[in-house]
Amino acid sequence: MVLYRRNRVAGGTYFFTVTLKNRGSTLLVDHINPLRAAFRAVKHAYPFRIDALVILPEHLHAIWTLPPEDDDYSGRWRAIKAMFTRSLAANGHRMERNPKGEYDLWQRRFWEHTLRDGEDLRRHIEYVHFNPVKHSYVTGVIDWPYSTFHRYVRLGVYPRDWAGESMVVAGAEWGE
Q: Model-level pTM?
């Protein structure tokens, strides 16, 4: 078995990409309430701050800050993925199983990047919020309902029309 080395910084702020195995799926938005419930339950049991989040049909991007003295983001992701999967199974959603008999809903790994400074954080928050436009789900960031962008607008951080025409060119420069 390959041992994946991840950067772990207690109290760190991290950017994540987490993906369903079936990249053509729409399960995350079709079952947004069980996904939200999984996030709430895990946040309650193992606190962390969600700095930015966007849920797309088959993947999500998140920025979290962990509490001081805590670097276990992997355990949190494992718990969120498991809780969401069990919720779908309990509600009769049919899912493939792998040879070990486990539900085969999620890609086994996730992408993680430790954010280095305020500029790195700002760029990644913008990437998270712009992602639905990048994938052509909407033409305006404000139009995607499953995003913390709406919280940022309520707090006055961004105007409702943030990332209009001028951001489309910049968005093309942001790799995934």
A: 0.89
pLDDT digits (tens, 9 = 90+) for 74-120: 999 999 999 999 999 999 998 888 888 888 999 988 999 999 999 99
As a whole number of angstroms, the distance between CA 138 and CA 135 comes to 8
b/e 72-102 (16+ beta carbons within 10 angstroms → b): ebeebbebbbbbbbebbeeeeeeeeeeeeee
Per the structure block, which two tokens stand in for 135? Answer: 């994938």
Q: Are 140 and 150 in contact (CB under 8 A)?
A: no
Radius of gyration of the chain (CA): 16
Domains of the chain are 13-173 (3.30.70.1290)
In angstroms, how far is the first alpha carbon of the chain from the final one?
A: 27
Known catalytic residues are 146
- Within 13 Å and on the Cβ side, how many CA atoms surround 139? 1
